[in-house]
Design a protein that fits this description.
- The chain is an all-beta fold.
- Helix content is 0%, strand content 56%.
- The chain has strands at 2-7, 10-13, 18-26, 33-39, 46-52, 58-60, 68-72, 78-83, 92-100, 105-109, 113-118.
- Strands 2, 4, 5, 6, 9, 10 and 11 form a 7-stranded mixed β-sheet that branches.
- It is globular, with a radius of gyration of 13 Å.
Length: 119
């Protein structure tokens, strides 16, 4: 099993930046894909970005492309989400997830960190 702990959320003004971090521990070698998802009140959890630790592939949800950047540290046990030019519609609880690149499925989740953007 993989344990994930997110941090870095907060309350910011539109146009500001935040960097979310997710530290993975446990059997990290069993999960080669790391992703960020978000959930707004009353809405379903949706994909934001992902990175593969095995093939280096990266994907972004269309609305964040060009504003958000996903990356990992050299040990690949921490995944970051740099969020620039934040908008009120980015307000959500952001979740880190670990899964499998080949299947595209995520089965390990963090507890989430709140991001609130006011105009």
């Amino acid at each position: 099993q993989v344990q994930l702990v997110e941090s870095g959320g907060g309350l910011v003004q539109a146009g500001d930046s935040l960097r979310l971090s997710c530290v993975a521990s446990g059997r990290t070698e069993s999960r080669d894909d790391m992703g960020w998802f978000r959930q707004s009140p009353g809405k379903e959890r949706t994909f934001v970005a992902r990175i593969s630790r095995s093939d280096g592939s990266i994907q972004y949800e269309k609305s964040v492309k060009g504003r958000f950047t996903i990356s990992t540290d050299s040990a690949q046990n921490t995944v970051y989400l740099q969020m620039n030019s934040l908008k009120p519609e980015d307000t959500a609880v952001y979740y880190c997830a670990a899964g499998d690149t080949a299947s595209g499925r995520y089965d390990c989740w963090g507890q989430g960190t709140q991001v609130t953007v006011f105009s």
